[in-house]
Amino acid sequence: MPDQAKQTMTGAQPDVLGSEPLDSSRPAVTAARVEPDRDEIEKPTGLLRGLGRIFLYVDRLFARIVNEPLNPMFHTGAITVMSTLIATATGVVLLIWYKPSVNFAYESVQAMSQSPYTAGLLRSLHRYSSDAAMFFGMLHAARIFLERRFDGARWLAWVTGAALMALILLIGWSGYWLVWDARAQAVAFGTAKLLDVLPIFVEPLSRSFLTDEGVNSLLFFVVFFVHMLLPLALGVAAWLHITRLARARFLTTRPMTLWVVGVLLLLCVFYPATNEVPAAMTALPRDLTMDWWFLFPLVAIDRLAAGQSWALLFFASAAFVSVPWWLGRRRRAPAAVVETRCNECRKCYADCPYDAIQMVARTDGNEKYQAQAFVISSKCVSCGICTGSCDTAGIGIDWLSSIDERKRITSWLTQAESEGEKVHIAFACAESAAAGLSVDLATGRCDELPGYRVLQVPCAGWVHPLMIERAMRNGADGVMVVSCGPGECAYREGARWTALRLEGAREPALRPDKVDRDKVLLLGLDRTRKAELVAEAARHRAAGATVVDGGGGDRPGYFDMAAAALLAVIFALAIGAASDLVYAAPRHAGSELAVSFKHPGAENESCREVSEEELAATPVHMRKPRECKRTRPSVRLRVDVDGELTLDTSIPPSGLWKDGNSVALERIPLEAGDHHIRVAIGETADPDEWTFEAEKSLTFTDEARRVVVFDRVAGFSWH
């Protein structure tokens, strides 16, 4: 029996739920109140739910060919974690061969390919496991979003999930920088473009990427350090992501782990990771192949201004992170405990999928029991699974009280008996195939299910076995419980606990000596299987019962292995296809001249005598007879191309007091061919005085830019 260490079993199950309420203060159902607040049970309509059906159809397709332990669509979150762990482990091992230096990084990575069964294999595994983490993480997020499992108490999981995806993206982004090939060059240029508009660096970061000689080795090591440090933040975010879940499936099972490794090795063997050409700072943007799982931001960065890119990033991130608030449903009232009914059985504590129930010291003075259940409202998602766990109706959701609802069912059965009608009772999960049924809430009648009285519930786990027994004892000809399909239960474990309870494998269990099991039907069907629900319900009413889980049933082992291999090929193609696609970088026709310098303007100092009154008002230790102020003019830059003035600008001094260096980085588009370039720099305010001048004839091509860099010590250097 699962969770034996956590769940206290109580032996014989008392028939308490079927008795009258022990707490007379609880309101009874009256004729004026014929239904609960059914707005709490939201119909699965809308664009998100419509798009979410895509996942359900894929689930059905995969379930036909492979059992749940080998169905990747049921393990997307765990596969993301496992892929991340593989990427982290292989990254650590690759440090044996990798040299974190701008001068040797490319050669060390390229040398790995010369050992295809050791370093090369690990390098490919590192890359494709990272891609798999991004791919399955996006699948996981898309499913959660489309099924609206992000609101209420689940906001923390959504926000930390967004942080996890952002961290994985940043790790991959910085990882591609460390290869120092053409992809790394595009990443470095894009990063510099974004950071240059922020008040972080004294001089533009882009100046570090003008020439190969100018690339800062310390900067490269900082990127390496960040790449190694981010996985620690990833671990913290992952812990927060599952902190509100009980029995979280953090890692894949053994069969699923073998499947994941098989997918990755398939890619490594048949499509090993390769590099682009070495990074060359003077090379102009060109078409290249890149990993779209991580480098897709280049599409926007290369085509938008830096400010526009930041705005797009800010608004997209804000919209994504704030989904639980602007797209979330009205938060439902959390479960509540009736202290006088709690008998310390701990079943609700053991069954809650969100760890929202704790056992605390009694507060009602009952000396028979030492503890009672307590609901942490900030964690409760109002699924009602605790209602189906409690024999004494001591805990549950007030807007769908089990005591009120069993009275409702009794009234339906009494009315049916008076009319000479034999009816079945159906408990319909709001996330299952029964979600689209049209039900008269007062009478429970449903045109699609003739002969049934339907009670809509938030989750099949809400149904207590004693409620089924009571319905059968009060004249129901049969009972049908409809849960969502296998794998991804909307409330994680509701469908699983329901099946175990009806099988007698988990308390509270359906008692075979009280109920004819053949008259109880459990259907596990998702929202796309309404027609099957109607057909199975009719068959159940006419004959006996069966259990329909919506899966493929038991299949021979070799069939499962063959199906798993087929899925491995499909997912390997999906991951690998986007990992090496062509990217067309935007560029203008012709070539480019880049001119840069970091130079202070001529120093000007102006002084004045301080008056006696000013000295008297100044503290003694700060008194100076003369006050001097140092200023620097803007440094002027003039560029002539083939004897014609092309650029004439002034660069103001940097610093808080405007007395620092003037930093210039100017780009001039030119046609390919030979051009005579003359560059003049003036450090004084005199517009006719040019302190430094140089000229040279250069050949420009479509493949590379030419660069002129000025330094006070080295003078002009031409690249």
- Total of helices: 19
Strand residue content: 15-25%
| Class based on secondary structure composition and strand pairing | alpha/beta
Number of strands: 21
Low-confidence stretches: 1-13, 18-36
Distance between the termini: 74 Å
Keywords:
Alpha-Beta Plaits, 21 strands, 36% helix, four-stranded mixed β-sheet, Immunoglobulin-like, alpha/beta, 3 domains, 719 residues, Cytochrome Bc1 Complex, Chain C
Describe this structure in words.
- The chain is an alpha/beta fold and 719 residues long.
- The chain has 3 domains: 47-61 and 68-326, Cytochrome Bc1 Complex, Chain C (Up-down Bundle), CATH 1.20.810.10; 333-548, Alpha-Beta Plaits (2-Layer Sandwich), CATH 3.30.70; 591-718, Sandwich (Immunoglobulin-like).
- Helices cover 36% and strands 17% of the residues.
- It is built from 19 helices and 21 strands.
- The protein has a 5-stranded parallel sheet, sandwiched between helices. A 4-stranded mixed sheet has the order 17-12-20-21, with no helix packed on it. Strands 16-15-18-19 form a 4-stranded antiparallel sheet, with no helix packed on it.
- α2 (76-94) runs antiparallel to α4 and α4 packs antiparallel against α5 (155-177).
- It is elongated and about 110 Å long.
- The model is unreliable at 1-13 and 18-36 (pLDDT under 50).
